[in-house]
């Protein structure tokens, strides 16, 4: 009898320790509504953008996963301080995928580097989708409704804007972190075994490169106003470049910065250099 009780107690203790190590539904929801998740834009930097907030969003779950491995916990924190940028409402989804993969890293089933590879592959496509939905659609609709109510003298206008814009966003945060965790455990594991992961990563990378290409044009604001010709035949250098290929100047700038970064030039120096080049270029008239 005494032996049976002891065995039962040991079994219960083992189950308790296992439960303490497991990521629960509550853990996921808390991460999606944590300071890190809701503060993605508050700690934004030009160097690594949302990395600090993303790491903070995962910190408590990482501590749980590596509760008996301080070095593993330290390495995980450093891993998630890598560059990260995404439409903020999609950040918990990527966090869920990352946490499910971190559990496999802790068990030695996958390489730690694969976590950031998947994060990088998801950032571009999800940002393209998220910006279109939340910034270009829902925010515009929310602003239109809020402004219309305000013009009518209804004090509910600002509240309507906040509700229309934030309710879908908070729903996506809570649902996304859970779905990301489920996909990370089941789909990604099976995809890696049957080779589907390679195909998915390739397809997602292509979309991501397309997004980067579009951003290199839309987020570059400079032109070369130097005029060539006389009378009615006057053209600017910018007109000629646009006639050859629209966005050529932005693409050239992108590759120059990419090359300089590959040479270990500090992003801070690139920012300062860009500011100086802009001021000098406008002053002497070869940039506008």
TrEMBL record:
GO biological process: phosphoenolpyruvate-dependent sugar phosphotransferase system
One of the record's GO cellular component terms: plasma membrane
Record has Membrane as a keyword: yes
Membrane spanning residue stretches: 133-165, 200-224, 244-261, 268-286
Pfam family, one: EIID-AGA
Keyword Transmembrane helix in record: yes
Keywords for this protein: Membrane, Transmembrane, Transmembrane helix
Protein name: PTS system mannose/fructose/sorbose family transporter subunit IID
Organism: Muricaecibacterium torontonense
């Amino acid at each position: 009898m005494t032996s049976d009780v002891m065995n039962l107690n040991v079994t219960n203790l083992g189950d308790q320790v296992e439960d303490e190590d497991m990521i629960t539904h509550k853990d996921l929801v808390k991460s999606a509504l944590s300071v890190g998740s809701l503060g993605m834009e508050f700690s934004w930097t030009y160097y690594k953008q949302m990395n600090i907030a993303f790491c903070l969003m995962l910190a408590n779950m990482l501590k749980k996963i590596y509760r008996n491995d301080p070095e593993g916990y330290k390495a995980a924190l450093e891993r998630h301080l890598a560059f990260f940028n995404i439409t903020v409402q999609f950040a918990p989804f990527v966090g869920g995928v990352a946490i499910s993969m971190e559990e496999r890293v802790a068990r030695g089933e996958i390489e730690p580097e694969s976590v950031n590879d998947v994060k990088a592959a998801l950032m571009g496509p999800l940002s393209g989708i998220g910006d279109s939905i939340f910034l270009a659609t829902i925010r515009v609709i929310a602003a239109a409704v809020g402004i219309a109510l305000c013009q009518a003298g209804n004090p509910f206008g600002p509240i309507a804007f906040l509700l229309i814009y934030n309710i879908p966003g908070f729903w996506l945060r809570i649902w996304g972190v859970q779905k990301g965790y489920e996909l990370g455990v089941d789909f990604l594991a099976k995809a890696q075994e049957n080779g589907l992961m390679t195909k998915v990563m390739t397809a997602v990378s292509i979309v991501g490169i397309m997004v980067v290409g579009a951003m290199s044009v839309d987020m570059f604001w400079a032109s070369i106003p130097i005029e060539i010709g006389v009378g009615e035949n006057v053209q600017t250098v910018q007109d000629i470049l646009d006639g050859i290929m629209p966005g050529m100047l932005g693409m050239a700038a992108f590759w120059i910065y990419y090359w300089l970064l590959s040479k270990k030039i500090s992003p801070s120096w690139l920012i300062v250099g860009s500011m100086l080049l802009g001021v000098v270029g406008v002053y002497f008239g070869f940039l506008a």
